[in-house]
Amino acid sequence: MNVSTRLPAAPVVALVGRPNVGKSTLFNALTRTRDALVADVPGLTRDRQYGFGVVGPAPYIVVDTGGLTDAAEGIEALARKQTLHALEEAQVVLFLADARAGLTPGDQVVAALLRRRGLRVMLVLNKAEGLDRAVAGAEFHGLGLGEPWAISAAHGQGVAALMARALADVPAATEAQGAAETHEGIRVAVVGRPNVGKSTLINRMLGEERLLAYDQPGTTRDSVCVPFERDGERYVLIDTAGVRRRARVHDAIEKFSIVKTMQAIDAAQVVVFLADAQQGIGAQDARLLGLVVERGRALVIAINKWDGLSAEDRQRVRREFDLKLAFVDYARVHRISALHGTGVGELFASVREAYTAAMKDLSTPQLTRALEAAVAAHAPPALHGRRIKLRYAHQGGRNPPVIVVHGNQTHRLSPDYRRYLVHRFRQTFGLYGTPVELHMRTGDNPYEGRRNPLTPRQTRKRERIRRHSK
């Protein structure tokens, strides 16, 4: 019997505060995005936003919330309810206040709520650029939440140092990654919308009905590792929402949590994304797949309950897939029935293929030859009469593969040509099932800054004339 263990998950950081203190600005600064992901799932309102934090010493999940007030009804009351859910998920709470506005009654309402809950809270004074920080924070000491931390989310001032302090005593995602490495095998996470058949598929993958009855005590933030073996290959299944008895799951929040899904994605090497053919492909599926792509995880897509569709409905689902999920066209797609087992066994070959592609080592000579062949077949278009020259390529990372292309004016390459290069590299090296990141590097121009610089040919010609004139 395989033993299930709990994997430390990526820490969750919640941003709370009264309205208009800059929570969304800080969220975008931490995730380095402009348009934050909106969690649009059953049981969750649109004002809770989730993203992967990239500013700080280690990865984490950041949750933005609506403005917190003491309203008893109306939209503010709904926002308050959602904020309280975010507090239940968080290991660290960043309580934002406006340094320029000073301490307000609204700040005192939020502080009182946080003190009653006994959470790990950091008081953050936003919009502090140009202010004397000691003076700006003086009146906030009375909240009893420790030393205020002054930042400017809009300008990025103090944000990295803030996250280093906030995560200093919290088990980091890097530790979770290290714990996962102690288990041999490909780490696979099964994700999807509620009621698409994840538990049924997981049991089929494991070859037993153990998972529905599994009920190991633990917090809702725990990712559970289930090691198993199939056809001589070892795997570690990483699952959260599907591992507890259905009778123990009472509401939509517990059935499907964006945070749990993000933690499972973060801990995995390959993600099996499950969609329901009878429900169709919706915007929610695209959002979840966007999270997988954002983390650079290898991907296999399974469309469940395919056997119950008519020929007309199958054609409709294919059209929806092509329209809404074109951005993951590199992933293998399987049409399965988790209940009857049809096509489930074929998933493992695609999981192995995706894992191998994500971990592949690519030599510089191989990449450079592939780049030269791509340019010979279709050269970059000239800009203002000047050719963009792509000289060589090398690998910059794995999981996902990162390919660094060197040349001149590489920053001027169009998105279409970048996609063309990725497609050529994918075809050449069999990088199916994994995203491929393309980084462009432009070499230094030795004539930059010189007035009317001469080309090497002009320089040689001038030198010959000088010698003959002597």
Oligomer: single chain
Write down the CATH topology of the largest domain. Rossmann fold
| C-alpha end-to-end distance | 92 Å
**Relevant CATH superfamily of the largest domain:** P-loop containing nucleotide triphosphate hydrolases
Q: Largest beta sheet, briefly?
A: 7 strands, mixed
SS-based class: alpha/beta
With strands numbered from the N-terminus, the spatial order across the biggest sheet is 1-10-11-9-12-13-14
Which regions contain 5 or more consecutive residues with pLDDT less than 50? Answer: 35-47, 173-183, 209-222, 242-256, 445-449
CATH-defined architecture of the largest domain: 3-Layer(aba) Sandwich
What's the helical proportion of residues?
25-40%
* Number of discrete helical segments: 16
CATH class call of the largest domain: Alpha Beta
| Approximate shape | flat
Report the count of strand segments.
17
What is the domain total for the residues?
Answer: 3
Radius of gyration, rounded? 26 Å
Strand content: 15-25%
Q: What number is the mean pLDDT?
A: 79
What does this structure look like?
This protein has helices at 23-31, 75-89, 105-117, 133-137, 159-166, 173-181, 198-206, 210-213, 252-255, 258-267, 283-294, 311-324, 344-358, 364-377, 415-429, 456-468; strands spanning 5-7, 12-16, 37-38, 49-53, 60-64, 92-98, 121-126, 149-150, 186-192, 223-230, 233-239, 270-276, 298-304, 332-335, 390-397, 402-407, 437-442. The chain has a seven-stranded mixed β-sheet, sandwiched between helices. A hairpin with a 6-residue loop joins strand 4 (49-53) and strand 5 (60-64). It is α/β, with parallel strands linked by helices and 470 residues long. It contains 16 helices and 17 strands. It folds into three domains: 10-172, 3-Layer(aba) Sandwich (Rossmann fold); 183-358, P-loop containing nucleotide triphosphate hydrolases (Rossmann fold, 3-Layer(aba) Sandwich), CATH 3.40.50.300; 364-442, GMP Synthetase, Chain A, domain 3.
